[in-house]
Amino acid sequence: MKIIASNLMKKFGNKIAVEDVSLNILPGQILGLLGPNGAGKSTAIKILSGQIKADAGNILIDDQNFQQIPDSLRSKIGVMPQEIILWDKLSILENLRFTAQIQGMNKQDRDLQIRNLVSGLNLEKELNTLAENLSGGYKRRLNLAISIIHNPSLVFLDEPSPGIDPQSRRFLWDFIYELKKQNKAVVLTDHYLEEAEKLCDYVVIIDEGKVIAKGAVLDLKIKYGAGTLLQVQSDNLNSEKIIALSQAFRDVKFSTKGFSILADDTVEIFEKLIPHLKNLDINTNQIELRQPSLEDIFLILTGKEIRE
Amino acid sequence: MQKILSIAIKNLLTVYRDLKSWSIVFILPVAFIGIFAFVFNRSNDDVSFNLGYIKSEISYQNSFINEISKLENKKKVKYFNLSQINSIEEGKSKVQSKSLDLIIEFIPDNKVRMYTDTFSTKGNVSVGIVTQFTNSFFTQSQPRLEVISTSTTTNETTVFTYLVPGLIVYGILNLLPQVIYMVSSEVRQKSTFRYFTSKVKAWQIILGHLLSQSIIAFIQTIILIFTVLIFGYSTTPNALLLALFVSIPTNLFTVGMGLVIASSFKNDNLAANIGTLVSIILGFLSGAFLAFPVVKLFGNITLTQLIPTTYAAEAFRKVLQYNKGLPDIIPELSVLTLSSIVLILVGSWAYNKFQLKNLVG
């Protein structure tokens, strides 16, 4: 299933949730939809999964033009919402069976898919435990399993792994990679940019409803993050020091932990920085030199940390 | 059909595993009946009610007094000791001194006014019996009516036996909060999102709820009837079977009403509170506890005639207390069935419009 969305716009009252958003969702590709809280990611997912209608824009699905995802295509789409939505009084197995039944699956397909999901997401141990008694990690994995029980060709994952243990997160991310290998199109939003960086083939960064950058992770790094990142941890920055640093360095970005400078020439930057640190009396708890990550690029582009 | 069955089974499992649902569906009504039985289930075979009436020139008074004086229980004990009084004041004084339980005054336009001590159990019960009798008396075109034939009942008549049909209706009405709890908790937990992203349709969800709640309601009715039997209510096996049959449209009506309320409100607490309120109001209006007075709305239409559960209570009363057969309760069953169908259709529409379509945004 291939979706080409162009110029999507959605308003809630006077507030524009997404504006002029265009993106392509392709089979066998993981698309990362990244942005700070309230950026418009969830609204974009709701439009692209047919939950709400865009106020403007076009959606081309397998070369057919639609204003909204039609109900008939909904069975080809799986949506894992941000919230954990399970039937608490049903066990893992019962949750899976029930969801498969309301998706209209026949017994043979149902049993096969349940077996695959249970083994792929490592749910065997708690198969007969009621959902209300599961740990957060199991709940998240079950949340994903029942979202894709009907074997959709397009999967939306809206922040699939917040607040879960590293092992469960690892299961989830391995499984998402498996979905890609099965030639499914996967769209995910996440706060864990390090993992998104490893998984996503293509990234769209949204801020305040608008797409501010998009491309393959490597392309984004080359375009926005060429050079070396000099990261300084400091605990005594104030407005005076921030102004002074901003005037002295072109690509300086500040965060709660300190500041970072994107440098083409590391030696030159160091020579310039050391006197400033002394003159401005800036405490330096740690100075780190490294290649920019997706998180750094996100900070460079939006001026915000993703978990702000 | 598979989707409807799946939803019904899921609901049944949820109720089975949820203590709160158990208490609403099974424990509460049984406890309620138990309390009523404890308070009111004392033999009335040697208890009569002292009824005073004020002599008037109303034409049907003699016939009324004559007929009501015939009311008697199985052991041929008269329900009422009748005495004539000269004025309301005299009667009220006697009510206060407990020498009278109830005073009735005949006034024009086929109306009877009653006075009693509202804190007196005997007074309230006698109001119920006289109201039942009066309703029956005035709905007959001829004063020579067939009086509610308590003398033919097989029951040992107590206040409890009088209350039993109404208590069963109220027990069934208690399902309202349960139905609402079931549907609205899915909305609160956003489980409706799963329906929205599946192939299931609103009418299938509603039918799934209807099926599961009807099964629960049927089990509940069996428990209710079993409970009243334990507390000494006696009736024939045929009457019990027919009562179970009457419970089916009554249950459907209750479930339909619950679905309409649950589907129409996004706030589950508000929906549950409205459900509780509606069940109490319907219980009273349908005479579940004591017969509701005749309140004419327009023409000969009374308030209780507009309440479908009135017909349920009447059908249960006819079957359980007066040993009537199926042909005698066809009108009541028809009203209940028709109103249930209307409610289920409205419930499906409201669920689709207010719960599924407004799910996201």
Structure characterization notes:
The complex is a heterodimer of chains A (308) and B (361). Chain A is of the alpha/beta class and 308 residues long. Chain A has two domains: 3-220, Rossmann fold, CATH 3.40.50.300; 228-290, Alpha-Beta Plaits, CATH 3.30.70. Chain A is built from ten helices and 14 strands. Chain A has helices at residues 41-48, 92-102, 107-120, 136-147, 166-181, 193-199, 217-225, 239-248, 266-279, 294-302, and strands at 3-12, 15-25, 30-34, 56-61, 64-66, 77-80, 154-158, 185-189, 202-207, 210-215, 228-233, 252-254, 258-263, 286-290. In chain A, strands 6-7-8-3-9-10 form a six-stranded mixed beta sheet, sandwiched between helices. Chain A has a four-stranded antiparallel beta sheet with strand order 2-1-4-5, with helices on one face. In chain A, strand 12 and strand 13 form a beta hairpin. In chain A, helix 2 (92-102) packs parallel to helix 4 (136-147) and helix 4 runs parallel beside helix 5 (166-181). The longest helix of chain A is centred in the middle third of the chain and has 16 residues, at 166-181. Chain A is globular. Chain A starts with a strand and ends in a 6-residue tail after the last helix. The mean pLDDT of chain A is 84. With 361 residues, chain B is α/β, with parallel strands linked by helices. Chain B has two domains: 2-40 and 158-356, no CATH class; 49-152, Periplasmic binding protein-like II (D-Maltodextrin-Binding Protein, domain 2), CATH 3.40.190. Chain B has helices at residues 2-16, 19-40, 61-68, 88-96, 121-139, 159-173, 175-188, 192-196, 202-230, 237-264, 268-285, 308-320, 330-356; strands spanning 49-54, 80-85, 102-107, 111-116, 296-298, 301-302. In chain B, strands 2-1-3-4 form a four-stranded mixed beta sheet, sandwiched between helices. A two-stranded antiparallel ribbon of chain B has the order 5-6. In chain B, helix 6 runs antiparallel to helix 9 and helix 7 runs antiparallel to helix 11. Chain A binds chain B through residues 12, 46, 49, 51-52, 74-75, 77-79, 81, 83, 85-90, 94, 98-99, 101-104, 130, 146-147, 150, and chain B through 2-3, 6-7, 10, 13-14, 17-18, 189-191, 193-200, 359-361.
